[in-house]
TrEMBL record:
Top-level enzyme category: hydrolase
Residue span(s) of domain Adenosine deaminase: 7-329
GO molecular function: hydrolase activity
Function: Catalyzes the hydrolytic deamination of adenosine and 2-deoxyadenosine.
Catalyzed reactions per annotation: adenosine + H2O + H(+) = inosine + NH4(+); 2'-deoxyadenosine + H2O + H(+) = 2'-deoxyinosine + NH4(+)
Protein name: Adenosine deaminase
Lineage: Bacteria, Pseudomonadati, Pseudomonadota, Gammaproteobacteria, Vibrionales
Keywords noted in UniProt: Hydrolase, Metal-binding, Nucleotide metabolism, Zinc
CDD domains: ADA (cd01320)
Name of one Pfam family that matches: A_deaminase
NCBIfam families: aden_deam
Family of this protein: Belongs to the metallo-dependent hydrolases superfamily. Adenosine and AMP deaminases family. Adenosine deaminase subfamily.
Binding annotation for Zn(2+): 12, 14, 196, 277
Binding site for substrate: 14, 16, 169
Length: 332
């Protein structure tokens, strides 16, 4: 298979984890933000170390990108460049997520932050054969008082570049109990819902995210393995798992790539998708993720076509866009 040429879909990609290192350097110089001593050191600070111990250490790599992403121009540019990078490797549809509340440090309003991200995406959609949507993330460890503000700020963009609500950040057992009020509010406003769960070993969080938070998709979800209730509900309800295999190895969600359950899940009728999570932090691309999954687990073109179709079906896109994306299946 020519993995670069294959049509691809990425449903789980963080904006702040997917910034080009050279853009960070450029913007940091412009804004007088202190940088590590040379380009290699910048790349090192943005990319997860080989011996990363857990998700919390992984999340430390977001500090520098977030420092530069505090102006309209920076957010618009980074959004455009992410869609451009994906388009150039034949990603036909990309859902990008980020937490608007992490971009208010220099006084931007939530509206300006969201508008800038959407504007960069629209500019790339005009230039390249790619379509996209944004997902508004909130962080589990942050104070809850701004969550509804984020949901309200994204509402005018629903169907115009924003589609869904997500809960991200470090994962603790039982976190879902704190969030039904917020996912319910998001659903009432017209958002779709996806939740990061079952990434740091807590399969029960996946069950809770589906039953308590009405999550339609789950970010990662790897740890349904070992939790019968979680496994069964994901299978029965055909909840799509947004798996991000390279990231899962780095955060120690799994031990090594060949231990990833994606192929086993697929064989058993679970809806699996292949995604990047963070192109820069995880030092990956969709081409790399699809190649590694297909080669490690001996997946055929037909297997990949099925996974591609799962991604189309579970995308938070309009029917028109889904139909357009289905048109690429024959290129697989
Ligand atoms: O894989 C992840 N799990 C949980 N949280 C994550 C992951 N990747 C990124 N994040 C967090 C850090 C970012 O600052 C935030 C919004 O994109 O989402
Ligand atoms: Zn993620």
């Amino acid at each position: 298979m020519d993995f670069l040429a294959l049509p691809k879909i990425d449903l789980h990609c963080h904006l702040d984890g997917s910034v080009r290192p050279d853009t960070i350097i450029d913007l940091a110089k412009q804004y007088n933000i202190e940088l590590p001593e040379d380009r290699d050191a910048v790349v090192q600070s943005l990319t997860v170390p080989e011996d990363c111990k857990n998700l919390d250490e992984y999340l430390a790599c977001f500090s520098l990108p977030l420092q530069v992403m505090q102006t309209e121009e920076a957010i618009e540019r980074i959004s455009f460049e992410l869609y451009e990078d994906a388009a150039l490797e034949n990603v036909k549809y990309l859902e990008v997520r980020f937490a608007p509340i992490l971009h208010v440090n220099k006084g931007l309003s939530l509206d300006t932050i969201i508008a800038s991200a959407v504007k960069g995406m629209k500019r790339a959609e005009e230039k390249y054969d790619i379509k996209g949507n944004y997902i508004m993330s909130v962080l589990r460890m942050f104070p809850k008082d701004s969550i509804k503000d984020v949901i309200d700020a994204g509402k005018p963009y629903l169907g115009k570049g924003v589609v869904a609500f997500d809960i991200a950040g470090g994962e603790k057992p039982g976190f879902c109990a704190e969030f039904p009020e917020y996912t319910q509010y998001a659903i009432e406003q017209g958002y779709r819902v996806t939740v990061h769960a079952g990434e740091q070993w807590h399969g029960q969080n996946v069950y809770d995210a589906v039953t308590m938070l009405d999550a339609e998709r789950i970010g990662h979800g790897v740890h349904i393995q070992g939790n019968e209730d979680a496994y069964n509900i994901v299978k029965e309800k055909q909840v799509a798992l947004e798996t991000c295999p390279t990231s899962n190895v780095q955060t120690k969600c799994i031990h090594q790539f060949s231990d990833h359950p994606i192929a086993e899940f697929k064989k058993d009728g679970i809806v699996v998708t292949i995604n990047t999570d963070n192109r820069t932090v995880s030092n990956t691309t969709m081409t790399n993720e699809v190649k590694r999954v297909c080669e490690t687990f001996g997946l055929t073109k037909e297997d990949y076509a099925e996974i591609y179709k799962y991604s189309v079906e579970s995308a938070f896109a309009s029917d028109e866009v889904k139909q357009h994306l289905m048109g690429f299946v024959e290129q697989i």
